[in-house]
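Data deposition worksheet. Section B asks for the primary sequence of the deposited chain exactly as it was used as input, without tags or linkers unless they were present during the calculation. Section C holds the resulting structure in token form. Section D is free text for depositor observations; keep each observation to a single sentence. Incomplete worksheets are returned to the depositor.
Section A, Depositor: J.P.
Section B:
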Amino acid sequence: MAVGSCNDATVSRRFRGLGAVLGVNLVAWPPLAVAETVPGVEAEAIARVIVALLVILALIVALAWLLRRFGGGRIAGGGEMRVLASLPVGQRERIVLVQVGETQLLLGVAPGRVQTLHVLEAPVTATGDAAGGVQGGPFAARLRRMMQQSDQQ
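Section C:
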């Protein structure tokens, strides 16, 4: 027997142990069974590569989960732009109130299109004037008033 070669019993025993750890029957797995007969390639080396790849894939999944969980993918812009409120007006259309710096914009958002509806001169605040008890809050009340004004014109 050459140095570094394994007999069938040794390979079978190693793969049974590795398979028990991974929960897979590696002895019956066809690529590993074929690898035993290929000269210059040891089944143990293939098993190490497979385990290393599984560990790397597990690390990638774990890092992606951590980034998503803790918001690592957000752009650090200092909070210059934020969505203050959103109101659906159709199945796929909505009106969105966005604050950019000190300016507030009322945007119409539809599939494939975003349009500026109004640039607010006085910013909408959470402590709105007559909208405290109205459903939807101050944004909905202000939007209703603006829509009524545009209907009267």
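Section D:
Residues 146 and 152 are 10 Å apart (CA to CA).
Residues 81-152 form one domain.
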